[in-house]
Design brief:
128 residues; 7-stranded mixed sheet; 4-stranded antiparallel sheet; 11 strands; globular
């Protein structure tokens, strides 16, 4: 069973950049499709980005396209989310998640129900 630990969150001003990391242990990262989700206070958890097991296929929420980039380094057992041009509405707890059922060459899922393993989250706060 894989364990996931996020890092890289913090307090930044609007327009700044952050790179989140998700370190995996207890499993082989290439065995999992991976995703990033976020949850703002009083709101439901929402999809941000996802990447296939090989890293060759990615998906983004419409509001993040062009600003966020998801990537992974299976050799380092780490997934990343590069966030540029941050906005106050990006403020949330960001979670990484792993899907062990997704085949290698299939587009990753965007529903939280498709992911079996979750990290504890990292807070991102963007001030105006």
């Amino acid at each position: 069973q894989v364990q996931l630990v996020e890092s890289g969150g913090g307090l930044v001003q609007a327009g700044a950049s952050l790179r989140l990391s998700c370190a995996a242990s207890g499993g082989t990262l290439s065995s999992y499709a991976m995703g990033w989700f976020r949850q703002a206070p009083g709101k439901e958890r929402e999809f941000v980005a996802a990447i296939s097991r090989s890293g060759g296929l990615t998906r983004y929420a419409d509001s993040e396209k062009g600003r966020f980039t998801i990537s992974r380094d299976n050799a380092k057992s780490t997934m990343y989310l590069q966030m540029n041009s941050l906005k106050p509405e990006d403020t949330a707890v960001y979670y990484c998640a792993a899907d062990e059922k997704r085949p290698m060459w299939v587009v990753p899922g965007i529903g939280s129900f498709e992911y079996e393993y979750w990290g504890q989250g990292t807070q991102v706060t963007v001030s105006s």
